UniProtKB/TrEMBL annotation:
Its main location: secreted. Belongs to the expansin family. One of its GO terms (biological process) is anatomical structure morphogenesis. One of its GO terms (cellular component) is plasmodesma. It comes from the Eukaryota. Keywords: Secreted, Signal. The keyword Ribosomal protein does not apply. It is found in: Secreted. This is Expansin-like A2. Residues 159-242 form the Expansin-like CBD domain. Residues 41-145 form the Expansin-like EG45 domain. Residues 1-20 form the signal peptide.
Length: 263
């Protein structure tokens, strides 16, 4: 990826610190899928792995949140506003799909929808079908997982490599990804195929390292895996650990910030 092509990602945002916030509060409506398995066919490309993410508390997000796949894996705290039924804490969901509805920003797994309820009120909240909520972006935390890549079955050594990015922590988005033979400065860029899946037809030989452009704070930055992530004999279907932990907190323009007591 050339330096010029990275300018949109690396230029400092025009949003001033006076209007930027890491916990902007939004209002919307949410619905739910009757089966969490519906999200395993989601646009992010996580497949059956999605069911195991975030204890099954998943969401399909509107295009403005999905961001052509850059929003895949993002986490949001959501709480419903029905007095007597909803808890003040709500629940935290992970984006695994695109929501094309014009009436809701999110469609939740039924487990996530019920998790917004006060104790003993889960079935009553589920009966709402559609709920008025407020939400904010929160960091994703994978305390026992580093950022990882899964080699997709469509990969064909040495001509084509497709990888799925997993366990992206923090409150960030990955907007660029490069690959090179370990120790080489000859980087080849990957393109976003769909959702969390990136690919390239320029596959270096030997053990491979990756670098990522991550948006966080007011700008973008490179995050490097300082080791061989894929061995020379990489195989499709395998998950490989990058050794990286992303913890940055991105900000967005809003005023005022949420200063409520929900944790």
């Amino acid at each position: 990826m050339s330096p010029l092509s990275l300018l949109p990602f690396l230029l400092i945002s025009l949003v001033s610190s006076a209007t930027a916030c890491d916990r902007c509060l939004h209002s919307t409506k949410v619905a739910y899928f009757s089966k969490a398995s519906a999200l395993s066919n989601g646009a992010c490309g996580y497949g059956s792995m999605a069911i195991g993410f975030n204890t099954g508390q998943l969401a399909a997000a509107a295009p403005s949140i999905y961001k052509n796949g850059a929003g895949c894996g993002a986490c949001f705290q959501i709480r419903c506003k029905k007095p007597g039924l909803c808890s003040s804490r709500g629940t935290t969901v992970m984006v695994t799909d695109l929501n094309t509805s014009n009436t809701t920003d999110f469609v939740l797994s039924s487990r996530a929808f019920m998790a917004m309820a006060s104790e003993g009120k889960a079935s009553d909240v589920l009966k709402l079908g559609i709920a008025d909520v407020e939400y904010k972006r929160v960091p994703c935390e994978f305390k026992t997982k580093n950022l990882a890549v899964r080699v997709e079955e469509s990969s064909q050594k040495p001509h084509y490599l497709a990888v799925k990015v997993l366990y992206q922590g923090g409150q960030t988005e990955i907007v660029g990804m490069d690959v090179a033979r370990l120790g080489s400065s000859n980087w080849a860029f990957l393109s976003r195929n769909h959702g969390a899946v990136w690919d390239t037809s320029r596959v270096p030989e030997g053990p491979l390292q990756f670098r990522f452009v991550v948006t966080g704070g007011f700008d973008g930055k490179w995050v490097w895996a300082q080791k061989a992530v894929l061995p020379g004999d990489w195989k499709a279907g395998m998950v490989y650990d990058t050794g990286l932990q992303i913890t940055d907190i991105a900000q967005e323009p809003c005023s005022p910030c949420d200063d409520s007591t929900w944790k």
